[in-house]
Amino acid sequence: MTRILFVCMGNICRSPSAEAVLRELARRDFPQLQLEVDSAGTHDYHVGEPPDPRSISAGRKRGYDLAPLRARQVTSEDFARFDWLLAMDAANLSRLRQLAPTGERERARLFLEFAGERSRVDVPDPYYGTAADFERALDLLENASRRLLLRLTESV
């Protein structure tokens, strides 16, 4: 079992989208993988709230169901529970590493970099953007999720 936690700031845009994308792509294309996938935020701004309606809408168009997800904040227990805590950008990676218990900082990584993305390291936050920004974020998340899933199949 591989356990992956996706992390952004408020857990209402990028990280729940990454959770839904990875979960669905794994179910559909990599059923042999045993995964636990979750998402959380580095801040408590939206705890208990559903994802941003624009994230839900963009995801729904591509077959991802974000509606049941609810925001939560990263806890120190997440570092023991998950193999990888994958941040959407450098600021959230830095915050994750501040929150990490002693000796656990390296479990936190940048998602795009970890998944082998070479042209960028951050998934831009679409929160203050347009519907097109949510689509671009999904493009990045899908590509990186496919690379990550291929990487995981190689280690099985």
What spatial form do the alpha-carbon principal axes imply? globular
Largest sheet: 4 strands, parallel
Placed side by side, the strands forming the largest sheet appear as: 2-1-3-4
Could you give the count of β-strands?
Answer: 4
CATH topology: Rossmann fold
Q: How would you portray this structure in words?
A:
By secondary structure, the chain is an alpha/beta fold. 44% of the residues lie in helices and 13% in strands. The chain is built from six helices and four strands. The chain has helices at residues 14-29, 53-61, 76-81, 90-99, 111-114, 131-154; strands at residues 2-8, 35-41, 84-87, 108-110. It has a four-stranded parallel β-sheet. Strand 3, helix 4 and strand 4 (108-110) form a beta-alpha-beta unit. The longest helix is centred in the C-terminal third of the chain and has 24 residues, at 131-154.
